[in-house]
Structures are given as C-alpha cells and as structure tokens.
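INFO batch 0412 | record 1 of 1 | parsing
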Amino acid sequence: MTANPPRARHTIAIAQVERILLGARGRGLEVDRLLESAGIAPALLATPLSRVTQAQYAHLTHLLRHRLRDELWGLCRRPVPPGAFAQTCRLLVGCRTLGEALEIGLRQYRLLIDDFTPRLQRLGDLAGVSVAPRRPFDPVLAYAQRVFCFLAYGLASWLVGRRIPLLAVNYPATTPGPVSEAALVFQAPIQYGGQCMAWYFGAGCLELPVVQDASSLRAFLRQAPSSLLVKYRDHASVTERIRRLLRHQLAAELPSLAQVARQLELTPQTLRRRLREEGQTGFRAIKDDLRRDVAVEYLARSEMALPEIAGLLGFSEASTFHRAFKHWTGMAPGAYRQAQLGRA
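INFO prediction complete | emitting tokens
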C-alpha cells in the first residue's frame, strides 16, 4: 500500500490539551467523554510527552465551546457568549488599518471579560497588545490570558493577510517555569516579568491596511477561532523551510545539515545561527520533530501496519522506529495506536 505524501503538520503537545480542559474540569464536565468525542484517547493525558493532531485539538475546542456555551472554554468566570467572536470580526473587517482594528476589537472584549483587561499599547517605535489580570493569579487565569493573546495575534495576522513579525513576548513573572514551545510558536524572544502577558511589534505595523472583507470573513469563520491557535506559524522561517524540504524525503536517507544549507543558499554556520535564533535546539531536533509529527498522523490510520509506517519514516527496522517513537512521545507506537483505537 502506498500512503499519501505526509502533510507534516505540527502536532500539539498533550500539555496544551490538559490546559484547555481546565475550565471544563472546573465546571464538572466529563472530560474523558469530551476527549473521546474529539478522537483523543484519555490515556494520553497520563503521558506528558504525547501529542495530538491539529484536527483533534480543533475538534476538542469546538466541543468545549458548544458544551460550555463559552467561546473561551470556561477559562473565565463569566462566559464569552457564542457569536461574540464573529460579531467582533464583522466590525474589524470594516476598519481601515490594523491599529484601528486592534483598538476596536480590544475595546469590545473589555466589555465581555471581567478577569483581565486587554489593551493596545503605543510605545514610540514599539506597539503591543497587553493583557493585565483583574484578580489574583491562578493557573486557569494564566492560561486564559495566554489563549487570548494567541487568538488576538492570530486574528491580527489574518486581518492584514500576513504574519505580523514580533519583537518580543512577555510572560508574567508568576508563570511557573519556561513555557514549552512558546518561542517556536511566536518566533520571538520570550521574557518573564511583571503581571501582564503581552506581545510587541514594530509600531509601523499599526498602519498596515486591513485586507479582509465580508466575503473572506465567511470562509474564515468556518474554522476560527480554534484554527488561530495553530495557524500563524512563520512559514518563511528557516525551520519551516527545512521541514518542507525534508517531508518528501522521509523514506530515504535524510540530507545532512551541510546539504540542506546548500539548498537554502546558506553556510552551515549561518544555518545553525538562524536555527538558534528561532528557538531550535539543533538540526536533528527538526528531523525528529518532523518524523514524530508524521508518525502521529500515520498511526491514526488503522489500515497502516507498523512496519509500513517505519519504512515511510526512513527506519529500516520496525524495532528502531519503536524505540524512537517511545523516546519522542513516552509511548510505544503500538500502545499509542491501541489507546487511540480503543478510546470509544
């Protein structure tokens, strides 16, 4: 059997699944049933390194919004009513510039959310969107602030039709330890301090024109807001360019860093430096993450045998794939598949 070429979409850390369930747990929902409905095996929560697909994660956010009647999934004390995001978007596509859209959009949400205050900051050559808490710190509030920042950034990027390059992202000093994958998602230096969550960019971006309209909004709303949590990666980054080069070569011997550098018209030294700037630990980590993400996608296909998947990922022996997948995710591939297939 020949599998379709891998799409190599990034997978989602199980820690993100656990956090987005915080509101549902606090309201007494049966989270195992929600996970199963989204195609996620509840057993994965017990394995900190495990991953889920973007489709599974998006499905879970839709289920949470429907069950809780809350567009922020029960993370705030007062629900954000269904339809609030769409109504705000309809206002924003009528704006002339990004700055105008941010002012209006954040003003709307200040009326809807009691737990924190979102504002646009103008700081000379810098601009930023900050989220300041209105009540004492707790893990649910902290995650609500982070989710709001992700959504606001994704929406702003969609409005201007391109990813807004960020200069820095600030996490509150109360954040418990480094936030996993934050630098890779934002593609910006992560700072810790103060009480606010914020993302900063060049003030000139505030004059970018809003390029979306009522027609493009209809297509956008069919997937948003959940799609915004994963969509706006920097596809021009070196990391993403390498993933695109490698994803159709997984079944063969993958090129070396020097060979990839030549294809990207960079020196190996420059390539290593660019990867460090993007928060990557090295070239091997990109190859491993790509193989892991494609393996997770393939294991969701019950018709594909494990030796076949191993071969498609470039492993000559199924036992080698077994060891690698367990190292990446904390679970053997057979156990991962069994958990998924046995979830219902």
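INFO post-check: The first helix runs from residue 14 to 20.
INFO record closed
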